[in-house]
Specification:
single chain, mainly alpha, two-stranded antiparallel sheet, 3 helices, 55% helix
C-alpha cells in the first residue's frame, strides 16, 4: 500500500492537475484512514480547479457524488 501511495504522490507532484491520480490518492488515503491528508488533497484540487464537476455536491436532482470505500481486488 505504501508503494502505491508513494507512486501516486510522486505522480501528483509532477502533474498536480491530474484528476484521476488525485482521486486515486484520495481513495488510498481514505482506505488508510488518513482523513486529514485526504481532505488536504481534495482542498488542493479545489484550489486548482474549483469548477470540476467531481467536486460539486450535487450533479442533478436526486444524484450526489459520494466517495465509497474500495474493496481490494
Amino acid at each position: 500500500m505504501q508503494d502505491a501511495r508513494r507512486q501516486l504522490e510522486q505522480t501528483l507532484a509532477k502533474h498536480p492537475e491530474n484528476r484521476d491520480v488525485r482521486m486515486a490518492l484520495v481513495a488510498q488515503l481514505r482506505d488508510e484512514g488518513e482523513v486529514p491528508k485526504m481532505k488536504a488533497v481534495i482542498e488542493e484540487f479545489k484550489a486548482i480547479n474549483p469548477g470540476d464537476p467531481l467536486l460539486q455536491p450535487n450533479v442533478g436532482p436526486g444524484f450526489e457524488i459520494v466517495l465509497l470505500p474500495c474493496s481490494p481486488s
